[in-house]
Amino acid sequence: MYLTFYGLNEKPFNATPDPRFLYMSAVHRDALAQLQYGVQERKGFIVLTGKVGTGKTTLLNALRQRLDGQTAVAFVFNSTLTFDGVLEYMLHDLGVSKAGESRAQRLMALNQFLIERERAGQSTALILDEAQNFSPTTLEEIRLLSNFESPTSKLLQILLVGQPELKAKLGLQELHQLKQRVGLRCQISPLTPTEARAYIRTRLRIAGARDLGLFADPAVDQIVEYSGGIPRLINIVCDHCLLFGYADQKRRIDRQIVSQAVEYLEDGTSPARGLTRPRGAQMPARARWVLGSLAVATATAALGLVLRFDATLLAFVQSVRGLLTR
Description:
CATH topology of the largest domain: Rossmann fold
Shape: elongated
Oligomer: single chain
Number of domains: 2
CATH architecture of the largest domain: 3-Layer(aba) Sandwich
Number of strands: 5
């Protein structure tokens, strides 16, 4: 595909939360430092919030790499689980075997595991992603896990990670005891225009690009305007731009390519942020229908799923180019 054409070793804008591609803005750097401090200093409950697509999961993966071998981590990403489901998943992730069938037996097995790690000078952390989706009942039961403690420290560090709605949920009256136990709060925000520009160049550099100015400045401005500084959306638009640029054999991504990529993502309609089709240019009805038929597939990318292009899709894009020029 476009990797060889643009001199890349790998795709720079995959939507997967690969910590190698983590761009450390001031906000991300501060949040990561707080998370690491909170776990290592055994602060109990730690809350991390941020809008969807701002890089929370990538940050958590970076945290797991930074924690030394003295910390065992259970990462629960399915927020539809009940407390018993969370407990079962957690024990499996921590490698606790023969935990028993009842909740009481599993809690006793977890307590024994935590005590043994404490005696060995080791710590344990539980990360709950998308925590805003857990019911108040489940969150209250999770709070009780913080009762595992020694006279001097907490035996289990619990990270609640979620969208801004998590703040509101923790403000519920039935969760006031949980709110009181939060030792640290971190928040990450969308990238500023300057940070977004550096973000794109950083990912290109990590992917092996020789030309870090592959995206022209006006094109970057347009990408930032469309994405609102959300890293996930930046990734989606940039990946589409590289595909369209390769199809047109353009060595540099300009505003025209960005407009085409955005139009493709927006199902052939002009986005509300001023990204309009050049005056007088009309898309043939047949081409509009073809692009519209792929709206469902491209919409999944906005939900954080990876859109993988192959040679067949490239051929399709080139055929659409032909339709647009008729």
